[in-house]
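Annual report, structural modelling task.

Input specification for the magnesium ion complex:
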Amino acid sequence: KTALARAGAFSPAVTRDGVEVLVGANLGSVPDARAAADNGAELAGLVRTEFLYLGRHQPPTTEEQIEVYRSLAEALGGERLTLRTLDVGGDKPLPYVPQPPEANPFLGMRGIRLTLAQRDLLDDQLRAIVAVAYETPVSVMFPMVSTVDELADARHRLDRAIQLAGRGRPAGLQVGIMVEVPAAALKAAAFAPHVDFFSVGTNDLTQYTVAAERGNPSVASLGDPLDPGVLHLIRAVCRAAEGRCLVAVCGELAADEAATPLLVALGVRELSVAPSSVAAVKQAVRQIDRAADADLVRRALTAAGPRDVRAILG
Ligand code: PEP
Ligand code: MG
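The model returned the following structure:
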C-alpha cells in the first residue's frame, strides 16, 4: 500500500457535510485485532468472545479471559473494546453447559437467556471484563436481549462484578445491547434509558424478522437484510435512540458499501465490520454528500422488497 492510501485508512470517516461515523471491526481472535489495527479500525465494535469457549472441555477461567482481552486491547493500540458476553446456544452447544435438546434452537436457550440461567458463566466473564475495563476503554454488550427485565438482570450481575472488584466503576465502561430480536427493536424506547448504545445485529435480526433460518440454503434468498421490514426496525431503533444514545450496526449489512448512505441517513453512527472491510466502509462514508437524506429513507422504507431497495441505492 502507498503511504497516501495508508494515511487515508487511518483518518476518520466523515461525510461531506461533516457527520462523523465511527468504523470499527468485528473480532473473533487476537490476529483479527492485529488486522483491525492495520486496517485503521477505530474500535472493536464487536468481540465474539465465543472463540474463547468453543472447542474445549471446561470454560476459560477469569484469569485466562483477562489475558486474552488484554492481548486484544494491546493489538488494537488501546482503542475501545466492545466485549459481547458469551453468545452460544442450542445451535452451538458447549460440552460443559447442560442443555436439553431443543426442536428450535434459534428460538431457545441462547445468548443472554442461556448465561442468565448459567450464572457462573456470566459472572466469571463479567469479572474478567470489569478487570480489563480498569486498564482500557471497554464496552460490555449483551446478546439476544428481548426484554427489559433481561437487561436489568444482566446489569445487576455487572454491578455485582464491579462491587466485588472493590475499585469503583471503571471510568470508560459503557453498557449496551445487541438489537437482534424484533421485539427489542420495537421496544427500543424502553431500553434506551438503560444503555449507552444499541448495536443492531442484522444477521439475527433479519433471520427473526423474515422467519428464515440463517444458514439454511433453501430460504437464503428470503434472508436479505435490505428487506424493508428489517429497515423499518432499524429506523425504530434510531428514532428511539435519538439524542439519548448511539446506534451501531455490527451485522453483515454494515459492510455493504451500497447500504452505507442509507444506514447513515437512518441515524446509524457506528459501523462494525470484518477487519478487511474497514477501509472500504470508511471510504463509503466519505462519499456521502448529505448525512440526513430523508428522501432516501422514505424511498427505501416504502420499497416492495430488497431488490427494489438495491435499485434505489444504485
Ligand atoms: C448478528 O446477529 O448480526 C451478529 C452480529 O451476531 P452474530 O453474527 O455473531 O450472531
Ligand atoms: Mg447475532
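DSSP finds 14 helices and nine strands in the chain.
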